[in-house]
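Q: Sequence in, structure out?
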Amino acid sequence: MVWENKTILVEFFLKGLSGYPKLELLFFVLIFVMYIFILLGNGTLILISILDSRLHTPMYFFLGNLSFLDICYTTTSVPSTLVSFLSERKTISFSGCAVQMFLGLAMGTTECVLLGMMAFDRYVAICNPLRYHIIMSKNSYVPMAIGSWFSGAVNSAVQTMFVVQLPFCSNNVINHFSCEILAVMKLACADISGNEFIMLVATTLFTLMPLLLIVFSYSLIISSILKIRSSEGRSKAFSTCSAHLTVVIIFYGTILFMYMKPKSKETLNSNDLDATDKLVSMFYGVMTPMMNPLIYSLRNKDVKEAVKHLLNRKFISK
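A: Exactly. Output:
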């Protein structure tokens, strides 16, 4: 451990896949390719949502925010993870770790709240279509998006502030690819029950409450769809929300699997993560942002047409 005046911890060691050089090389290639797809896919969705006037609706405004969020979320950890795979020095400064914790938690919280807002948007579109443009006006959906980002920033600032004030003593090894806030908190040589309580309250407010909004919205949506007599009408109504529902299932399904799956006795008695935990964490951090553009483009006619229009316009301009 590195100390300054023997009292202040100045860096952490990110264990990641240390000791497995072949796996590190494999993961470097996989994550690098995924990161390129994340930038291209989400960047394209942002571009078409801005350039194509047909997509200037609340749903695509939220989708543009989600894509920008995914780019920011992965950029907070993926580049440093890639560098650590190729470098023998796998350390990160205390301040750098604090910034990574803040940004990662802020992006994750914002995504939870934003998915809840998108569920409400789909509820209004399907269950109250005649009043959709009144309820989901620009004066409504822009503050909803801003509120999502603000919630993420406030939650992350509060939790990160309390974590960086903790004393760290005999252990500076983070058994993770990045500075995940819970992994850092467990290294403190002090009572962290207060931090755990704050995290519980934050999880309830910013993760479970949006999930309840999503469940409630989709219960009403499914009930409304089942009342439609024609199969064509039911299919059309469901297609408008199937992409968002798929994203929600992947996002929350991965979180539930990560935190609710049974732990081995060895894992329970230590701070170590097993291989499955690390792989699931990687899936949550990289795979989900990569899949979002694919889900929305493959299952959405408007997005596919907007991409074709954008490509045709580029070829014509050349």
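The first strand starts at residue 3 and ends at 4.
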